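Assess this one:
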Amino acid sequence: MSGYFTKVNDLDGNPIVPVASAAVWLVQNTARALFDVDVFDEFVAFQSETAVRQIVNSYAYGHSDPNRMPLPGNTDEITSKLSAEVTAVVAAWPFVVAGVLDVVESAIEQVEGRGIVNLGHFQRSDPVANRMIVL
């Protein structure tokens, strides 16, 4: 479980301080989670914060427009959207990692194929590690 407090602007650009949330998750495959992400709880906390910001940005805090549902009192819809948003990001993560690895592999093949340099085993791990840090 992770939680945090932060400042987020609502749909009308008004700052809402603090926005608080708590994320509770169940890791079904701990070995895979640790392999895919170095610090899984930090990853989920970051994704949760990003999702909260995006969702809060799509609602007005006050009743400025009778056709829009305000942020307060809309807990069920917001909770549902938050869960869907975080679930989508976590589910997409393995595909993002695979894409990064494909890019690195292609770059190494091009460098070696053009005769620029022949990389040894340990030299090949550097670009992979660098891309994963950037990711």
